[in-house]
Amino acid sequence: MMRVRTLEPRHRKAWDALAGRHPCSGFMQSWTWSVFKVLEGYQVLRLGLFEGSALRGGGIAYVYPSPAEAGLAVIPDGPILDWEAPDASPALQALVAALRERAAGAPLVAVRVEPRLETLPALLAGLPRAPVDLVPDGTLEVDLGPEAETLARMKPTRGIGVYLGVHLALLMVLMSLDFLSQFIV
């Protein structure tokens, strides 16, 4: 039987290895991304599913502080589960219960999950679909030409977005290249 435990810094390497090799996960389940989200003001809950001492799954959830009377947790690119296993349903229920128990502030009224799945498992079939995906299915790359010319043609607000994007890209470069290489196909 799997048990939910809070992931501690000593679990970081094992978590990133699991998130990097699991087919339903992505970079938003990386430890480094969760550190970035803390800097943005999110409460980050890192939960592991353990079978004995072995880390088998889990999820990193993000809860944005709100003055509302209710909160929402999101697990983009996760949780990491064997979605077809017989114990997938109890594992997901245990993760959701642990999130509700550990979330600070307003009680959680919803936990949004968004694993990268090719087909919808029976476990998720009865749940309503969110109107918008948090995680895009693909990326479109557009050559904008030389940077100086592109920025000169932009409206000031778009230029600020590019500036912020460059700084986010710098943060991404600072992430462990070993970890990122696990996601490059």
Q: Tell me the number of structural domains.
A: 2
Principal-axis shape equals globular
Mean pLDDT: 83
Please identify the top-level CATH class of the largest domain: Alpha Beta
- Give the fraction of residues assigned to helices: 25-40%
Radius of gyration: 18 Å
CATH superfamily of the largest domain: Gcn5-related N-acetyltransferase (GNAT)
Query: How many strands appear in the DSSP assignment?
Result: 5
Count of DSSP H/I helices: 7
Based on secondary structure, the structural category is: alpha+beta
Report the β-strand fraction as a percent range: 15-25%
Low-confidence stretches: none
- Biggest sheet strand order reads 1-2-3-4-5
CATH architecture of the largest domain: 3-Layer(aba) Sandwich
Secondary-structure element pattern, one letter each: EHHEEEHEHHHH
CATH topology title of the largest domain: Aminopeptidase
Biggest pleated sheet: 5 strands, mixed
- Give the N-to-C terminal Cα separation: 33 Å
Describe this structure in words.
With 185 residues, the protein is α+β, with helices and mostly antiparallel strands. The chain has two domains: 3-136, Aminopeptidase (3-Layer(aba) Sandwich); 140-185, no CATH class. Helices cover 37% and strands 19% of the residues. It is built from seven helices and five strands, in the order E-H-H-E-E-E-H-E-H-H-H-H. It has helices spanning 12-21, 31-39, 88-102, 122-125, 147-153, 156-174, 177-181; strands spanning 3-6, 43-51, 54-63, 71-76, 108-114. A five-stranded mixed β-sheet has the order 1-2-3-4-5, sandwiched between helices. The longest helix is centred in the last third of the chain and has 19 residues, at 156-174. The relative contact order is 0.15. The model has no long low-confidence stretch (mean pLDDT 83).
